[in-house]
Protein 1
Amino acid sequence: MKNKDNILNASLATEFSQKYLAYALSTITHRALPDVRDGLKPVHRRLLYAMYLLNLGSKLQPKKSARVVGDVIGKFHPHGDQSVYDALVRLAQDFSIRYPLINGQGNFGNIDGDNAAAMRYTEAKLTEISELLLENIDEETVDFKSTYDGDLQEPLVFPAKFPNLLANGASGIAVGMATSIPPHNIVEICEGLKIVNHDKNVSIKELLKVLPAPDFPTGGILNNNKSEILKAYTSGKGFFELRSSYKIEDLGRSQYQISINEIPYQVSKSTLIEKIADLIISKKNKLIDNVLDESDHLVRIVIRPKNRNVKPEVLMESLFRQTDLQVRIPLNMNVLNSKLQPKVMSIKEVLVNFLLHRYEVLSRKSEFRLKNIKNRIEILIGFIKVYHNLDKIIKIIRNAEDPKLQLIKIFKFTQNQVNAILDMRLRNLRKLEEKEIKQEYKDLLSEKNFLTKLLSSKSLQKKEIDNEIDFLIKKFKDDPLLGKRRTKLDKFGSVNEETFDNEIKSDDPLTITVLKNGFIKSQKSFVKNLEEQIGNENSSLSMHARSNDKIILASNFGKFYTIEADNILTGSSTGRPISSYLSLTDNEKIIDGFRFDSEGEIFIYTKNGYGFIALEKNLETNKKTGKKVMNVKGDDIVIGVSKVIKDSDSVAIICDTDGKNKMLAFDINELPKLDKGRGVILVKGKSLKIINATAFNAKSVIKDQIDKTLFDKSTIENNYGKRAQSGKVIKNFKNQVMNRNFENNIRCHL
């Protein structure tokens, strides 16, 4: 609704919603996602088309990159020059894309992560591969649209004789969706295209016999997990495990060193070496003595072991786990289809869509050529008629007031024919020219018949597409750089986890303390009196651990977090905020913690009297956001955990009901073992509040954390019953934390 000043009154929420939706659609369809047909985003398509118009062919001289960028942003792409130049640089880097689309001359960056030189210093031209993408673009094979200012026309898509999407891959982040497609080997892609071209019902499992996995420009070794690869290619989503290739070099006298010759895709060599050096300096990997960069134009990273007894496979396994010498490459084949709609496709769908595009290009190219041939044949027929009546036609042209009208009237020429005749030069009237015209007429007639049959015959079209694919196979198959597979396929071996932990990590003694202010710290020794640590008003939890331990932390919201003990800051009296290690939500606090034991079991309980037993291996997580294990509702919170040791046969609960302290003990088998959930009711009562709980052996006494008896056998027997009963009142209760069965681990009372 407009007011008197012609200002539109609108809801801010509505306007933001509409504008953001428009922005999201623009980002998805015109920026971040590639087209399944040519595998290009708009900026790349505009860049290559601008270079095509500048006549920067692969066999011609290059031009300054600044000139190219200027044409792109001035004519086609109304965005910043740096973003266009960055796109140009990446298309020229043979370590970034498998088949470079631009031939760059000058400093275009390197695998160390160094930036390219400024655009005024570099030059660029198209490669033969980008020329394959553009081939036949002037033959009405694709649709064009007006540029942003309406002055020029730009192609909506390239004819794309080269299957660029799978060959070079793509990555991008839009609004609410993203794409990540790794590069593949062109020869293998073409073999897959031939199969799909002849059998649209072929299974993806059959396709994987010729197109087994991605092929990265930097080589490496890909985990040949066939079931996972099949699953990823079928759904269009998944991941691939890629690791560096290496050699063990014998130095004599039982000494050796390891040379790394290929690093994973999109990993910076300099950053990788810095990470390995940091592991050595921080003593997080005790197997490595030194790392050297001996690279020239090829990658060569040398790893020296600490001593001759270090097993090379264990050393490399440690680096695969601790550095980017092994990475997970995501697969998310989210692309734009021919209607510019985003869709996650299987690998077979990508191949089918490319072939459909090539069939359309073939049809439109044939129609364009057929139209031109018909026009040319019409003119050639007129020329032949001229040679048969040469003297008469010359006389009419010389003497008639309107020769065009006379020629049409006497010889029945068409408008096109008479225009071409009047435009002829006298030197073209020689006898040799007549022979050439008749031969051209004969050749064009033959081509016309072929194109007419081609347009009406699916089998001929299929044969023509096969010829195109065979051309690509022949062109690339014997090329040692472009045709040969660079990434090897192998099944990754594994090192025994316990052996690995013992080999790689030192087991230095630590004392880890969680402070009440939300900080955590570590000391490089075992503090003798942990109770004194807890006696300090700032401490809420203190434990002994080893530097190769994992620490599990429990929060009041029922989430569990994992921290490597040697990652916790040492030597600081104040420590570091827990939030720098974990992603805690509002009002979430760490209430307990312990050393991880893969074989252990934990009793978890809440303030409102719910609990269950969980396996410790199900509590471990690599996520900074933690793992939700106990589901708490309303005002309920987790208030503690207790280790279930081998002789634990019972559970004791201390609670407050109506201001009275009560105790209930029952058989531990009444508790379920769950991976996740709310658990069962432990005890009943009005205004119930759990104070403390533990797992214990009914034949013994219940002690506190410093080994003092809290409840003797008679007290336990007197309060023994069934789960979910109300319990009995206990006299002279001291509000102390019962022994939680964690060795050298003390927690203050919440």
Protein 2
Amino acid sequence: MDKKADSALNSFYYLSPLWCVLELFFWPGFRAGVVTGSGAAGTAAFYAVEAGLGAALWFRLPYANAGALVENIVYLVFVLKFLMLTPLDIAIGLGDGAPGAEALARNYSAAVPGIIYSSFHVVYRIKKALRRD
């Protein structure tokens, strides 16, 4: 993979502090909510991992790309679980009149744009990694 494509892929990790601020203050559940829920501590932990991967990629550590690939695969598994099972939880909760069902539906709709954006990046990075080998 050339350096320009590497830089474009890695900028996703370099911008993790910006993603964290976006999710904590402006758009709750944008990306980290899929993995950690809606809490600030989970969001901060998620983006700390992303920032660590960004630093590893910046300093060109030997297993940085493999670590980013593993993180992407784990994120994709959580995204697929979230997309397939959360609507069922929402439907069951709304049918039973559960008090948290409406909040869950709002969180789901808030997370979908971030999921779409992140999924494009994740699939592109996996595709580039597989093509390189």
Protein 3
Amino acid sequence: MSNQFEFISTDPSISLKPGKSSLIRSRCMQGKNKRESSRRSQRAIRRAAATHKAESSTKPDLPSVQAIPPSLNDFALIRFASDIDAEAQGLIFKAFTYNVANPPSPLDRCVDFDYIESASFQWYFSDAVFLHSILFVSYAINDLVLPSWDGQPGRKMVSHLRKTLALLARKMETINVHEDEAVLHVVINLALLAVIYDDWKAAAAHFAGLQKIVQLRGGVDFLRSRPKLHLKLDRLDLAWSLSSGNNPFFLLPITSWEPILQLRLSDSSLYQPPADWDIRLADLFRDFQLLAVTINENVRKHARYNAACFQTILSSLQSRLMYLESPHHDSIEELVRLSLLALLTTTFEVPGRKIPYIWVAKKIEKAYIGAIDSINKNSKALQLWLLMVVAISVTRAEEDWFREAWRAAGIAVNWAEAKKHLTNVIWIECIHDRAGKTVLQQLTITREAADWSMGMKSWDPI
């Protein structure tokens, strides 16, 4: 094609030079009025295709979609308080998201505890001691849920524990370290780790440290101003006490033995403690009943207990139970007291781990056997409650003494019937239902058909 240009005047009075008119027309009509099947058109198509192929072969190859470098790691732009590898970063994220979906305490389902603290979230990026303490707990729990776990601390858990202890030792040299909130949570994590591995000697050392920190920060008044923190300490403290047989570190003083919850007319159908019980135990028992009833009602209404109010009640119940130890260790009252303490253990759990409450489990076994005559004279509903509470908390249903006690009681009920009797005594549905149903199914399966049939005819919950 010619590259010459022809300029045309827009003045209509000026005539074009001879021959220019046909030239302009041919230029304007290029590509018009042509047949696609003509030889000329076919030659033009072949020339264009050959030219395109030649140009394509001379161009450098562009990277394909697969050749694009992968995106940065999700944590590449996050600067943690200490250098940690990708696996540890992923474990931090996993632990954080797990705690959002599965709060640390079963009580979160029925009590308004806000477990996500902005301050503790910041410590991941500003406090290396706290970061490594979260990692050793996370690795410990991660090991617990593995089918291949041999009961020994994992290598990475030990590594982060050592880093935590080394950094904490340096931090303890600073002035007023007891006011450092991150240090408080690090020591709580150390106590939790000791509980996980049944290292009660280490747990005692950590609890002593926590007790000193709390005393320096105001003692009882400090705990009352921090209901969530108080809950954590109380639950860990109870686990330590009932496993080791030692007195709790955070036992509040008793200011009154009077009931703290008001009995309503609608509560009159609940199981009534016998008149010959110690009045202090009877009042405690009723407080437990009313607390359980209130929680069950709140859950049905999609409401949750006020955290400060709930923790005040729970601390009172726990302290009164601890101070009330009966001199008659084989009495039904002592058995009920121990069973109420066992019931409190269900408000604390470790993922993948059932804490072995060895001391209190042995005490309950001895008390049950010693009080069997009194038990048989009392309501069968109370006997059902005693055995179910023990089975879902501190004793395995497979243990010989428990299986014999269950068989001798002649209990034969389905879950719906059992739950009716349990809620009439003391039962928090959102915490206890799943475990209770599982235990009852196990006991039903293992019973012999003949004994079960006899029990169905003779068992009377009244």
